[in-house]
């Protein structure tokens, strides 16, 4: 019984951001019904990294646990009527259709709120539901490039570098999740449902609260240096440095203390809050040269006891085997009926009385169609008629 037990979510989203937001609600106990086409949601057919899985690829598997699948053709009258019937008992409806598609399908906010005034309707888009970019593709890398963030790191003579994860998708997912929870809290107080709009461009822009305020309020230009500094608005040294055997990160170290440890006398008379900007490239270059003299572990052993902020640079194997990750229980493992033993990132929020759990893995297409329709009051004969018409699909069990 998770903290959102009793909340029913109709997840009509595809790809990453929407399904990830809905999965977070499912992890907390909500009954998430994944409403997908009878051929399966798009992500089922687009495996990231080529990890196709047995029956369910890893992309879909990772974003759709704790959900039940209802496979329905919304283009058929019977399918659309079925969804509208389910809306009557739903708490949250989540979609990330391109602008205009929800209205064409007859599942826009105005239509659904008339059926259920208490409904929380979460609409996700790439750039907003209207405006000059409304029809542009809302893809993670494209939004990263438009966010300005890429120009805050690296060196001025090299191409901007994207983040090493699907950053905009993840941030948008959490923004939608936050909006849904806030709207549910409002409804708890007032009984009133509402529409919640989230777009990827605003999500990735607004998390840069400090950086953009430094630019707009502080009037500080976003200037990349000659050396590959990790952030244009953080003083040197700040970045990733090669060591004798791998890499290490250094963040905002005390210059005098760092200079003593790496045997760089130039740092001795520098002021952290002024000279670290004036001599940003020089500080980075001198640090870079000196750090190649020892291994990462040797530097960590020197720096950490005297409060020089530093850390190793991990690959995924290092992450999975890290002792703090293991201590935190960051990953969860469970058995899936078609994919076997699954190990995947778990739950970032810990509740003392209502912990999140994996109650079911990602469903097969239409795995729960019959179960969902029966619970919605459909008779066996009605379900058989829907299956025969092609309006819905039931996975072979």
TrEMBL record:
GO molecular-function terms, A-Z: CoA-transferase activity
Keywords: Transferase
Name this polypeptide is given: Crotonobetainyl-CoA:carnitine CoA-transferase CaiB
């Amino acid at each position: 019984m998770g903290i959102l037990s009793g909340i029913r979510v109709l997840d009509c989203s595809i790809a990453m951001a929407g399904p990830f937001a809905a999965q977070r609600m499912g992890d907390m106990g909500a009954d998430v019904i994944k409403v997908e086409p009878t051929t399966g949601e798009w992500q089922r057919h687009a495996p990231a990294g080529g990890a196709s899985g047995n029956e369910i690829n890893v992309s879909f598997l990772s974003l759709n646990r704790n959900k039940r699948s209802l496979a329905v053709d919304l283009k058929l009258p019977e399918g659309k009527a079925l969804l509208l019937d389910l809306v009557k008992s739903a708490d949250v409806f989540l979609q990330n259709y391109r602008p205009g598609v929800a209205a064409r399908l007859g599942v826009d906010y105005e239509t659904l709120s008339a059926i259920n005034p208490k409904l929380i309707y979460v609409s996700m888009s790439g750039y907003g539901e209207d405006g000059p970019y409304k029809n542009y593709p809302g893809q993670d890398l494209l939004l990263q490039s438009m966010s300005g963030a890429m120009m805050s790191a690296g060196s001025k003579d090299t191409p901007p570098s994207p983040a090493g994860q699907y950053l905009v998708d993840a941030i948008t997912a959490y923004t939608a999740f936050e909006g849904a929870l806030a709207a549910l809290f409002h409804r708890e107080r007032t009984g009133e449902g509402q529409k919640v709009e989230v777009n990827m461009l605003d999500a990735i822009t607004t998390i840069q609260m400090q950086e953009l305020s430094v630019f707009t309020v502080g009037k500080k230009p976003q200037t990349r240096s000659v050396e590959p500094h990790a952030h244009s608005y953080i003083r040197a040294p700040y970045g990733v440095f090669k060591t004798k055997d791998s890499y290490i990160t250094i963040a905002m170290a005390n210059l005098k203390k760092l200079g003593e440890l790496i045997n760089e006398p130039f740092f001795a008379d520098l002021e952290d809050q002024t000279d670290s900007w004036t001599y940003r490239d020089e500080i980075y270059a001198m640090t870079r040269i000196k750090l190649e003299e020892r291994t990462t572990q040797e530097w960590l052993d020197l720096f950490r006891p005297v409060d020089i902020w530093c850390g190793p640079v991990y690959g995924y194997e290092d992450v999975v085997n890290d002792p703090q990750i293991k201590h935190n229980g960051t990953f969860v493992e469970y058995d899936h009926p078609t994919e076997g033993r699954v190990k995947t990132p778990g739950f970032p929020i810990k509740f003392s009385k209502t912990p999140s759990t994996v109650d079911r893995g990602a469903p097969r297409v239409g795995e729960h169609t019959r179960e969902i329709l029966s619970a919605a009051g459909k008779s066996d004969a009605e379900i058989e008629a829907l299956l025969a018409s092609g309006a819905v699909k039931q996975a072979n069990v």
